[in-house]
Model the fold of this input.
Amino acid sequence: GSQTLGELFKKHSPCIILIDEWVAYVRQTYGKTDLSGGSFDANMTFAQALTEAVRATPGAILVASLPASQIEIGGEGGKDALTRLQTTFGRMQSPWRAASAEESFEIVRRRLFEPITDTKDFAAKDAVIKMFSQYYQANKSEFPHGCEEVEYRRRMEKAYPIHPELFDRLYEDWSSLERFQRTRGVLRLMATVISELWDRQDANLLIMPSTVPMDDSGVQGELTRYLGDSWRPVIEKDVDGSEALSLKIDRERPNIGRYSAARRVARTIYMGSAPLEKA
Done:
């Protein structure tokens, strides 16, 4: 009960209780009465007692994650659990969401890259960002509005070595897909992309939509798992297959082919349009 929990929290405060996958756990008790973890209603009663005890205890905080997508909720039991937990927390909650995609930049960057510590690496990072910024400023009419501004340079610094445009496409376009889990989906995709680029010893200065190696089966699988298998032939035929149209254009026109320009453009178009076509 809340009184016993309150005594526990007061004895050990300040304290923080972290609960993840609560809905996934509770939905397994739905319609069952012989489980050691208690019935569905017993778990909901515990949630009520827990939140009341935390609210009554100075220095105690409860943080719980609740799913946003239907895929994560999972069935009637999950829906009922989510509804009741939302009601329980709704009486006293302070809901938190990532303030912007930039906050997610940090999550992905810290999970997938080691921090820069060497002075030479800092200098290299600054040189790359300066080069891009100066190019955007000198060619304003060739790029979307805002790329030449100081704010965009700041975004590049936060996202490095991933270009902000790739993050924007993932968080604005790909995140609109029902099966694409915002942070986890980006982490999963980018981990696969980075691994393949590392194996290839890719020398590009930033990871951009145009440098996503869609000819790799692992990367291709990540890009089609949210869209359906019908999109795999699209990549292989038009974007980044061994006989793709983009590669044929690059071979036929050596002046652009030496930069793999057609393939880069095709990759960029895919990253920015595939999820919108699916939606």
